[in-house]
Amino acid sequence: MDHAELLTPENSGVVSAPAGAGSAGIYHAELLTPENSGVVSASAGTGKTWLLVSRILRLLLDGRAPASILAITFTNKAADEMRERLMTRLLQWSTATADELDEHLRQIGIARPASRRRAAAQLYETLLYAPEPVQMTTFHSFCQQMLRLFPLQAGVPLNFQIAEHLEELHERAMDELFAQAARQTGGDFARALDTLFALCNGIENTRSALKAFLMHRNDWLALTRDGAAPEAFRDDGDGEAGELRDFWQAGIRRRAAQYAEALLNSGTKTNHARGEALQTLAARDTLDDESFDGLYHCFFTQEHKPRSVLGKTSPDWFVEALASLDYDSLAGAVGAARERLLERRNERLKVAWRHAGDRLCRIYRGLKRENGLLDFDDLEWEGSQLLLRGELHLQYRLGGKIEHILVDEFQDTNPGQWQLLLPLLDEIVSQGGGSVFIVGDVKQSIYGFRRADPELQQAAARWLKEKCPGSLHRQMNTSRRSAQPLMECVNRVFSAPPDAGQPVPEGFQPHETMRDIAGGVRLLGLHEPAKTPPCDWRNPLREPRPASQAASGQEAARVAGAIRQLVANGLPVEDGGQQRSLQYGDVMILARQTTHFGDFMQALRTERIPSISAHEQNFLTSLEAADIIALLEFLQNPRRDDALAVVLRSPIYSLSDEQLWQIARTPGDCWQHKLARLAEGSAEEHAEGSAEDGAAAHWRPIERQLASWINLRGQLPPHDLLDRIYHEAGLAQRYRRAVPPPEAGRVGDNLNALLEYALDFDSGRYPDTGRFLENLKTLRRLGGRRAATRAPTDSDCVRLMTIHGAKGLEAPVVFLADCAPAQRHRDTYQALVQWPPGAAKPGQFALLPAKAGRGGALHRLVGQRERRERREDVNLLYVALTRAKQYLFVSASGKPGGHHWYARISDAVGKNGLLGDDALARTGD
User: Fold this and answer.
1) How many other β-carbons are positioned within 10 Å of the β-carbon of residue 52?
2) What number is the average pLDDT over the span 216-239?
3) How many angstroms separate the CA atoms of 556 and 589, rounded?
4) DSSP letter assigned to residue 358
5) pLDDT of 834-864, one tens digit each?
6) 334 contact partners, CB below 8 Å, separation of at least 6
7) Does the pLDDT value for residue 272 go beyond 90?
8) Are 437 and 6 in contact (CB under 8 A)?
9) What pLDDT score was predicted for residue 767?
10) How far apart are CA 821 and CA 525, in angstroms?
11) pLDDT recorded at residue 470
């Protein structure tokens, strides 16, 4: 199908387009025609980046000013890739022969290329010297640029900085919130916090609830955009007590006593025990929460289903007694009372949470302003508010200058970002002559935890159809990435009949491929947990740790062995139309979660396979950072033998186990004194000319260096002390020699991250190593700050990634691991936000209590969210299965049975566990 119209500047469209489109033939001609508008849903690997860049090329060829084009995507990496592809193609045009250039132009839908040849050849130079370039950016970068231009109108600090690491600010805001509550005892805010503490069952759950509020602060701001403050807090606990009193005194108590008597005389042990409990409750004048729960469970099970009262052998008199009591209406009254009580309690919880959360947001915002900071949520919110105010000079500088908008990965848009786009889109459409081009694929929507809503793509399509009648709506399902067996696997997995109970991605249609290359899918097995005998105590200095017997360890070993086999035997892979042997950099391992990353990294190291994890780890959990922290702990307290042992064994000094035993056997009350004694002994031996002097002489420089650092600890700020240590010990070189070359970059990043953090701590001014260490412990507990890790494609090493992290990436060989059931998402004391697609503000903004306290209304809302999460889990599987170009290997660890991913893929692939070419067999497995 030819879609060339969508590259016409005057037209607009929402496009879900193909990824990886190459240069083979005219590609969807109507989508490449700038005069057309359209909605395109592009499946994975169908070439959407090529399509977006081609549309920009057509706009430039039609004489559109570069600055009038705005292309928005979701990551800096995607924006950089789009920019690089644009300039690469323009450079090709500038150096191409006339025939080559004509072919390039025909590929983007130019029917008479000779008429555009000269303009196309000069376009590279034109763009290089343009006063303002094509804007290829992210939502956050666009908002940041806009706020830099109009800080006064937006009400933000003039020279604001972006706060990327928010854990400490969150904790400071939380501490200040509790401090304010302690100072304002008796006020509405303090009572709201007390209520939140009581209904959340403790301080930790309360902190979780308030952190959830912070994570959704933009939703709260949208809900209160019209200036409405949170509801005035009223402790309605008396209302719940009154509800119970009225219910108990409205004849229920008398009927409960009569029912208890019938149960006691029914002749069964179960009914007798229930009758005794009910009789005890009926003797009470009032009910509290606990006694009402007891009453409720006399009529309903723990799953909130009516209890079975009558059996096959129930006597007639018992049946008649229940009828005279109108048992069904009695049970119904108890159930209805519970619903009313839960509704009151949940409303009280919601109001208390909103009251305390609003105060927390104000404190947090104040802390940021004190430090001249904005976070990413601020950029979105302040940017959207700036545009919504619609000031004329803003429209002139922004809406008037931007005439063509392209949005990539639209399925990842959240409601706030849609509200940000709307004023710009309205302005472009109202002016005429502009275009809107939106690309997305609801099947690849996997970022619900970031508030992404795939239904916004349909809302955008409806908006476009209304504003731009005649806009095109297209779907592209022909892959330009994957081999035929991979597409066959995808079709089998997601083409289950509707009655099979297996959900499929929304809008899924069978996929085809244009790639005529070798490929295959192979199952590596489901590794079940093995029963292992308890491990005896071992000496860790003398006995190596036994190999992991866990199922995940076995799976990791199988995957690592397969990778080694494939590379060692030179599996042929396609690269630019040519074949070459597989390299480690061609392999990607994907997992749904990071739970077993450690097992996989260990297995890869055991096989001596260079590898890197693209998962952003807290740099404080790395071994190298732990070594430096141990050194600081020793310097702070020189009697910390355990910390000194870590330092001496680490690459800082690289002592052997035997040398550590030598220190341990030396007389002395702590290792520092023992080390000093060894250093003194070596000096005496040197004076006497001992033959052992050469073997022992290394103790003295170690002892002197440590003593020097101990003296500096109280004189230098932590950053200056660490900088001195790094320099004097040559840490970078020592660690580089101690790790495999592919990991040297990661280790260096972690060491630098620790040094940078020390500079941030108190601006690097005060010599307080103790407080710095306490701060590091807090940071590690909170999940820590991330090191600026380099891209995993920088070297020839296997990439270990989560599926979320691999979105948008591809590799010739992919191992999809850990396909057993995932851990369930914890939703207790988390925010429940429902924002109808296209609406100006959320329709629901509440806190989820524990499951037992939710009631019917919340259960229905949670059920809707769980259905969305199940749909997203299917989307995640779709993304995982479409990352491979040629070969896909699938493995799992866990118990068999159930409807987990491995079982679903196994059913699709078949009993022999193979589709297409067997890569391992080709390499002699």
Assistant:
1) 26
2) 76
3) 10
4) H
5) 999 888 899 999 999 988 888 778 888 888 8
6) 252, 295, 296, 299, 300
7) no
8) yes
9) 76
10) 15
11) 77
> What residues contact 183, with CB distance under 8 A and at least 6 apart?
none
Give the torsion sign (CA, 567, 568, 571, 573). Answer: positive
Contact, 898 vs 545, CB < 8 A? no
Buried b or exposed e, range 282-316, using 16+ CB within 10 angstroms: beeeebeeeebeebbebbbeeeeeeeebeeeeeee
- Per the listing, tokens 């199908």 go with 1
Residue recorded with tokens 């105010």:
389
Two tokens, residue 696: 């022992």
* The pair of three-digit structure tokens given for residue 419, joined into one six-digit string: 């509200």
Phi and psi at residue 455, to the nearest 5°: -70, -15
pLDDT at 532: 54
Distance CA 84, CA 662 (A): 58
Tokens at residue 39, please?
A: 């909605």
How many CB atoms are closer than 10 A to CB 530?
10
Using a CB cutoff of 8 Å and minimum separation of 24, what contacts does 140-145 make?
140/376, 140/379, 140/380, 141/76, 141/79, 142/70, 142/72, 142/383, 143/379, 143/380, 143/382, 143/383, 143/384, 143/420, 144/379
- Token pair 């899918």 in the structure block, residue: 521
Report how far residue 828's alpha carbon sits from residue 826's, in angstroms, rounded to the nearest whole number.
6
Q: Are strands 69-73 and 404-407 parallel, antiparallel or unpaired?
A: parallel
Provide the β-strand partners of residue 473: 39
Q: Quick one: how far is CA 200 from the chain centroid?
A: 26
Among residues 54, 37, 45, 53, the alpha carbon closest in space to that of 20 is found at: 45
CA dihedral 562, 563, 565, 569 (to 10 degrees): 140
Q: What are phi and psi of 783, to 5 degrees?
A: 105, -15
Q: Read off the pLDDT of each residue in 888-893 and give the average, rounded to a whole number.
A: 95
**Residue type for position 488:** E
What does the H/E/C string look like for 526-543? EECCCCCCCCCCCCCCCC
Give the helix ranges, DSSP H, for 739-834: 741-760, 769-781
Q: Of 780 and 495, which is predicted with more confidence? A: 495
Rounded-to-integer distance, Cα 439 and Cα 18, Å: 9
Which CA distances in Å does 808 have to 408, 563, 922? 11, 23, 29
User: Of all helices (H) and strands (E), which one includes residue 648?
Assistant: helix 641-649
Determine whether 733 is exposed, middle or buried from the number of CB atoms within 10 Å of its CB (0-12, 13-18, 19+). Answer: exposed
Strands 611-613, 831-834: pairing is unpaired
Pairing state of beta strands 572-575 and 578-581? antiparallel
Is there a contact between 510 and 491 (Cβ–Cβ < 8 Å)?
A: yes
Look up residue 761 and give its two tokens.
């701590």
| Cα separation values, 445 from 26, 866, 890, Å | 29, 15, 22
Cβ atoms 894, 819 nearer than 8 A: no
pLDDT of residue 7: 52
pLDDT at 525 over 80: yes
Name the DSSP letter for residue 629: H
Q: What is the DSSP letter of 9?
A: T
> Residue type for 829, please?
Y
Q: What is the CA radius of gyration of the chain?
A: 33
Residue 101 — left, alpha, or beta (φ > 0 → left; ψ -120 to 50 → alpha)? alpha
